[in-house]
Amino acid sequence: MKKYTFTEKKDTRSGFGAGMHELGQQNPNVVALCADLVGSLKLEPFIKENPDRFIQCGISEANMIGLSAGLTIGGKIPFATTFANFATGRVYDQIRQSVAYSNKNVKICASHAGLTLGEDGATHQILEDLGMMKMLPGMTVINPCDYNQTKAATIAIADYEGPVYLRFGRPVIPVFTDADQKFEIGKAWMVNEGTDVSIFATGHMVWEAIQAGEMLEAEGINAEIINIHTIKPLDEEAILKSVEKTGCVVSAEEHNRIGGLGDSIAQVLVKHKLAPQEYVAVDDSFGESGTPAQLLEKYGLTAKHIVEAAKRAIARK
Amino acid sequence: MSEKELARKSVEYRRKILKYIYQAKAGHTGGSLSCIDILNVLYNHVLNVDSADFSSPDRDRYIQSKGHTVEALYVVLASKGFFPESDLETLCTYQSHYIGHPTRKVRGVEQNTGALGHGLSLSVGTAIAGKLDKKDYRVFTLLGDGELPEGSNWEAALSAAHYKLDNLCAIIDKNSLQISGATSDVCNTDPVDAKFEAFGWAVRHVDGHDFEQLKAAFDAIPFEKGKPSLVIAHTIKGKGVSYMESQLKWHHGVPSEEQYSDALQELGVAEESLA
């Protein structure tokens, strides 16, 4: 089993900021928009070097999404940024009509997704965003796993023509992927090959899955771990290939169990290859205040929970 | 185009709007007739838009926020050569691109619209892009007075003034009626001029069926350097067909055979008076 180590911890939103910094230097058509959360989105380096290509919208997210769609009519590649809650649920109609239905080259980049924003509590902890975004025809949905992958994904989506939802977060977590990786939209990443159970994880849960893999190994269980950084389009081939081998599945996501990655995988299994699946996800609930560690523990989103789910899945084979 | 030529054009447009709505048995008749004179002046006098070169980065942009009056837009785009008018025989029918609200599948349409309250934000974004590229193109958007209570309009109005978008011109088709009744009864937005002025816009009122006034207003934009322009066009819903004028039921009404025939007769009389 491949061992993953890290020398530092960073937040994925800083990976986004670093990606934007590079894009600012590389692509003159990239424009950044923000609804009063420049510091939270780590946009300062981009703005410092490209003040003309930054559009501060103030706290008016609906307008920001409309502006973004309008900017494409002038040939720009807008990156609309705010917290995931306000980037999706608050402006679903704007995204549906003016971005997705119009097939606009708008990148919706959303930080502070999930429970791990912590202390601010349920108003800001969106757990439904992946579902809302993946339901939109033509929308690409990406949830990278660490700083380096978020940076690479940010750069990659500028070269992709079409609407994208890019989701990342606030907590500092291990940086364990390569700094010079090439991000391929829609291509799952094999973290660790195994034979007993397939663990498909996305976002912050990938590191938890890696830890779970080590814990399972200590008990003689050989888990295959795959990072599904692109929720849509889903890499069905990678999923089916893995399940053919292992015969059971755990999905792990910082999202409501309804409508997220787990449901996307279940659809694939129902259609092509029936196999037992266990969800590691929030059980149809809102969040609350707490540290990320406290909340992940309470809502069942840790390596330990993945281990338990893996054993349940294996027992159902 | 002279005022008289524009007036003749509008009769022709009205006839076609009614024809295609009558054939499709669907459409937004009253609003299409209230805004058609505005669209006529925009496409035949104001907009630097060429159907042979629609992808030109220097073209003026027109975004119709009140997407439901798409029949007016389709008829004008056809007359400007964006597509054969015969395409409109399929209006609102199964598998047609000529859907009941504008889509980019129809050549000449910049943006899918129809969910109200979106057009002004879209136009602000496009106008910012023009400023960023130091282009001279202008952005025009047509709003309905009924959609003004959508909060996104006011977010957009703030940002247009904040970014000093004097390359942006919004037009309100103020026909004073919406699907539930008089706009003043449903959710009053008057005095709309004072509101936009307070937000930092330069505002003018025109009779939305007076070609001289419409031309003069559009020729004068930007009304003030450094400010977005707003044209409040006072219009009559159902204009040009007397039994439809200012009658709420014609918001979404489709004429019967007899009503259609009466309307054509009335438009014929109007056309003769312009001969």
From TrEMBL, chain A:
Gene3D superfamilies of this UniProt entry?
3.40.50.920, 3.40.50.970
Keywords linked to the UniProt accession: Transferase
Q: Which InterPro entries match?
A: PDH/Transketolase, THDP-binding, Transketo_C/PFOR_II, Transketolase-like_Pyr-bd, Transketolase_C
Q: Where is the Transketolase-like pyrimidine-binding domain?
A: 10-175
Q: Write out the GO MF terms.
A: transferase activity
Per the UniProt entry, the Enzyme Commission number(s) are 2.2.1.-
SUPFAM superfamilies xref list = Thiamin diphosphate-binding fold (THDP-binding), TK C-terminal domain-like
The family database entries (CDD domains) matched by this protein are listed as:
TPP_PYR_DXS_TK_like
> What is the designated name of this protein?
Apulose-4-phosphate transketolase subunit B
Q: Which organism is it from?
A: Dyadobacter linearis
User: Top-down, what is the taxonomic lineage of the species of origin?
Assistant: Bacteria, Pseudomonadati, Bacteroidota, Cytophagia, Cytophagales
Q: Which gene encodes it?
A: aptB_3
From TrEMBL, chain B:
GO MF, one term, reads: transferase activity
Q: Where is the Transketolase N-terminal domain?
A: 18-268
SUPFAM superfamilies, A to Z: Thiamin diphosphate-binding fold (THDP-binding)
EC code(s) of this entry = 2.2.1.-
For this protein, the record's CDD domains field holds: TPP_TK
Q: Which InterPro entries match?
A: THDP-binding, Transketolase_N
Enzyme category, top tier: transferase
- A Pfam family cross-referenced in the UniProt record is Transketolase_N
Cofactors per UniProt? thiamine diphosphate
Q: Which UniProt keywords apply?
A: Thiamine pyrophosphate, Transferase
- Protein family according to the UniProt entry: Belongs to the transketolase family.
PANTHER family reported for this sequence: TRANSKETOLASE N-TERMINAL SECTION-RELATED
Q: What is this protein called?
A: Apulose-4-phosphate transketolase subunit A
Recorded source organism is Dyadobacter linearis
Per the record, the gene is aptA_1
